[in-house]
Design a protein that fits this description.
The protein is mostly beta strands and 307 residues long. It has one domain: TolB, C-terminal domain (Neuraminidase), CATH 2.120.10. Helices cover 0% and strands 52% of the residues. It is built from no helices and 31 strands. The strands form nine sheets. Strands 20, 21, 22, 23 and 24 form a five-stranded antiparallel beta sheet that branches. The chain has a four-stranded antiparallel beta sheet with strand order 1-31-30-29, with no helix packed on it. Strand 29 and strand 30 form a beta hairpin. The protein is globular. The two termini are 21 Å apart.
Length: 307
């Protein structure tokens, strides 16, 4: 595993670009930042709040899940979000960033009159709509109950697909886009939801009030963050607490565990890039680093991102 750069302020949401750079958010710095292959860092846009997940849309803009910001704390050498809301917290949002000008615009702040709390991760389907998670926010002893949404890029539609959903985080689609995967942070569970049509989930789960199928339950002191899917359909989820990536087969078995070189409690995200999509990029957020390494198969090509 190769270290590309360090000194990032809690990086997340990596997107491997065709030119070899990686666009990622720095949640504490509140920016969308470009990291070149040689480690050079350039701020693309100041998003404010707490930019979190990122995905390139059909219009060439970067779509940002903005969680509204955190108060930050240190645990030994590790930087991490604290348990209180920042004084300037105004709610969460979905933003767009023009990559040429750096202009930032807000697309959604609410759904059916209910404000977004802490949007976290995002994935586009082939038709140009996007699924995203809202993990919620912590306020001392209180924690919002989260949701999963589907929305359109023109601002015309946003629908809540799942609520309540405690701490939904990473989100991704299977290669055939018939399954939506969601990682549940605190319970360390990976869920699969059958898709009836874009933005509509099937109501055929094993439980009367829950449409999901449990794909995998982690058994140790682990928590889950964001995820990516490879071309074999494995769900590769960043695993908090153990400082690694865990690959889960579509049938639920653990395929592999890959730790970062220097242990970090907050390994938060992965994306695939390079000419053959075999290069995995990993955000080691607690220590502020970006790594790359070779994956055993190509990653799943993301919609609207020509690598």
């Amino acid at each position: 595993m190769k270290e590309i750069c360090r000194g990032l302020l809690f990086p997340e949401g990596p997107v491997a670009m065709p030119d070899g750079s990686v666009l990622l958010v720095e949640i504490e710095r509140k920016t969308l930042t470009r990291v070149d292959p040689d480690g050079k860092k350039t701020i693309v846009a100041d998003c404010g709040g707490g930019p979190n997940g990122a995905a390139l849309g059909p219009d060439g803009k970067m779509y940002i899940c903005n969680n509204g910001g955190f108060v930050w704390t240190k645990t030994g050498p590790f930087n991490r979000p604290g348990e209180a809301l920042p004084d300037d917290y105004e709610g969460g949002s979905i933003q767009t960033v023009d990559l040429k000008s750096g202009d930032v615009n807000t697309l959604y702040r609410e759904c059916n009159g209910e404000s977004l709390k802490g949007p976290n991760d995002i994935v586009f389907d082939r038709l140009g709509g996007f699924y995203f998670t809202d993990l919620g926010k912590r306020r001392g002893r209180q924690l919002d109950r989260g949701s999963v949404f589907y929305a359109k890029v023109d601002g015309s539609m946003i629908v809540e697909l799942i609520h309540p959903f405690d701490t939904p985080n990473g989100i991704g689609l299977s290669p055939d886009e018939k399954t939506l995967y969601v990682a549940e942070t605190n319970a360390a569970r990976l869920w699969a939801f059958d898709i009836a049509s874009p933005g509509v989930l099937k109501k055929n789960g094993p439980h009367l009030f829950w449409p999901g199928r449990l794909l995998h339950k982690f058994s140790g002191y682990e928590r889950l963050d964001s995820l990516a899917v490879d071309a074999e359909g494995n769900v590769v989820v960043a695993t908090l607490g153990t400082g690694c990536l865990t690959a889960i087969a579509p049938t639920g078995e653990v395929r592999a565990r890959v730790p970062v070189p220097e242990f970090d409690l907050m390994v938060t995200n992965i994306c695939f890039g390079g000419p053959d999509l075999r290069t995995a990029f990993v955000t080691s957020s607690g220590l502020g680093r970006l790594y790359s390494f070779e994956w055993h198969c190509p990653g799943l090509p993301l919609n609207f991102l020509n690598t």
